[in-house]
Amino acid sequence: MNLLFAVIGCVLGTLIGVLPGLGPAAGTALLIPLTFKLDPTAAIIMLSAIYYGAMYGGTITSVLINVPGEAASVVTCLDGYEMAKQGRAGAALGVAAVGSFIGGTVATFGLVLVALPLTRFALKFGPAEYFSLLLVGLSLVMGLAGKSLAKALVMGVLGLIFSFVGVDPVEGAPRFTFGIAPLMDGIRFVPVVMGFFGIGEILINAERSLVGVIANEGRVASFFPRRDEMGISVSSIIRGTGLGFFLGLIPGTNSAVASFMSYAIERKLSRHPERFGTGVIEGVAAPETANNSYANAALIPLFTLGLPGSPTIAILMGALIMNGLTPGPLLFSQHATFVWAVIASLYIGNVILLVLNLPLVGLWVKILKIPYNILMVFILVFCIIGAYSLNNSLFDVGMMIVCGLLGYLFKKLDFPLAPAILTLILGPLMERSLREALSMSQGDYTIFLTRPISLFFLVLAAVILATSAWQAWPSAIREESKEAQV
Amino acid sequence: MSRVNTLVWGILIAFGAFIVHQSLGHSYYGIDFGPGPGFFSFWLGLLLIVLSLIQLIMIYRRPAEPLPDGFIPSREGMKRILSIMGALAVSLAVMNFLGFALTMTAFCVFLLRRLGRQPWWQTLVLSAVAGFGTAYLFGLLQVVLPRGFLGVI
Known about the structure:
Chain A is an all-alpha fold.
């Protein structure tokens, strides 16, 4: 019976992930009532399956229609959608499914083997370490630069500025709200992403006639990468697994950070970074692996220490408590049967997800055969309902429409969108960590240098920035001399 | 293209200046030893101004660049874009009054007729599915949607 609930959870989770705006947190919360009649083990198995099923579901819309189903799938749009335009949607979804399976499975084994010692290490992360780690993430923004470093930096700055809209996290003072009540909650990430990527792309496509246009013939040439891409896919999956697993152990990060950092690292390590954004397989394999590895690893601090690492995990924690199980150090000793059943279901759930979704890739890709003018209208409806369902607010829909127009203009002017999205996520986390760290040290900035883990990350960030600037300098000079010759 | 770029960087400089000005209205230092609410936005606004100024100077150092082909959409393309934005704006304005399903149905009818060449029956069926179908699906997921004056979702 538990297997059946894992299957149901995977199916529901994938559907939740496909529907834009709902996301794993909202989807898990909405489906908790379904589990009231189940015994605790079955309930948690089903909810966990919904959680990591949603991680995969978000990939489908990212690849096929450039609308990310949830935050962690945003970066998949960059190369996944390009692959779909080239008739390689099957390969993109296939590698995402396999990478998600490997990332999730390795994270599950990690849960079994190294949960406690790794969690003890992760607990050494205080606000100073968080800030320095997020600075590493920010430095990787330069890895998302594309053609123009200056434009990427400007977009990063804009994302940070918009992330500060709302209420100051420490003093509670409203910032940049201009008396508009909905802005007190800040600029929500989902409407911005759906506007930039979904509506922006539709407006770009609307410049040409849409009559008789089909997004893609919908043929699935292959579910897998080409032979020459196998090696790079494997190494990207390995790196994504490691990064996602590590970040999942740290409470307070989120899956979008894991997928963005994974993408930026792949770009940094690639011999041809200029190809990212044009449909490279590692641009899908790495972030998708990282986000599923993160999703499973984030259960480790929950089970071992009772610490929820993300909003979705917090909801799972609530479900555990509702079922009479208190997550924490005593969970393993007092409810060993339950814990091991759930861990086994994580592994089996990953297998189910792979078995369920690989054959369905052909079905999902058929969506692309729908005439684009019809598909586009349905995408707009889903975007509207997705933005509205966040908070039952038309303000979020309005925000999405404005971001759609901005996204269109930014694309026309060649401003990359990914840096703005990354800094929109990182901004509040960084500000809170910095201010908490300085509060702890009573204003002494050397706290970031005297704590070894923080110092390590700061040095890493400096190295990344220096090498990115060093690599960007010759091409900037080449651009200048080319223009001077013209 | 140089003129367009000049305009864009000029807007960003103005926006940066606006951010700096707004930040000055918040405390620079916090009550808890760290930066205050105005700290980050002040420096980010300044950074935006500096980056944009550098780009503006580089534009003037370079020879003028023409607009790339296709940069400005054709007349029909512009009409399509305006139709989509107009439909989105009007839907937003009337959704609370008409309700989600009716608004989305009308939205779909308008855009499908404007942007495609489906027969009327296909347009109406697709619009009904998009409007009422999605409302029903999200209703099952307990997402509360605007009902409008008719009390229909």
